[in-house]
Amino acid sequence: MSVKTIPMYKRPESLSDVRTHYCAGCGHGIIHKLIAEVLDELELREKTIVIAPVGCSVLIYNYLEVDGLEAAHGRAPAVATGIKRARPEMLVISYQGDGDLLAIGTGETVHAANRGEDISVIFVNNAIYGMTGGQLAPTTLVGQKTLTSPAGRNSADVGFPIRACEMLDTLEAPAYIERTSVHNPGAIRKTKKAIFKALKYQKEGRGYSFVEILSMCPTNWGVQPPEAADWVKSDMVPWYPLKKFRDRPADEDADKEKAS
Length: 260
Prior knowledge:
Helix content is 39%, strand content 15%. It is built from 10 helices and 7 strands.
């Protein structure tokens, strides 16, 4: 008697069948897979353009079966804005790290959000500069040791870690803002839902979406992958709470229900 096997899982069609270059325990690969799954589910692979600037995020277009374009350091939102305005029928994703989005690219980030550009920003926050060797980033925690803060971040000297979602939530225009994580399976599932909503909202023309994802960088943190995942929960989440800050369509629906 022959036994019929049914595959329980297969590689998303939007995910390239290539060997990863990311370090063991890095969260970027997980996030790439989630984006690929969402693109398949929303049937958007043939209509997507991903923008990647300088940083560990720069090679995302090697892992997704979509059109991709590289931007100068910090300028991904500006490039994404130009592409979306020229090709409004396309889905445009700006995929950025913390050194890029909140250091050299802070102005681009704030003004694209303030204009309500109809793009989806995926922001990977691992609290450090990854590609260049582990320097202090705008998101590095107080007391966290890095290559350029060997004694730990001193807030009196370089200020406090910037909370991107809270900052952008002060603006009127964004439609959707949420912070998630990939440090455990439950968090990964919630991150996929957030990415799904961000891309779906753009597909529906609802405006600017911003998903911040807390991620691991075991190599530059100097720890093993399991320790890195634990550190996200124990140290990063208290400063960067996981929550939905803005969901304009849902908020507006709730207001209408209250009014009626």
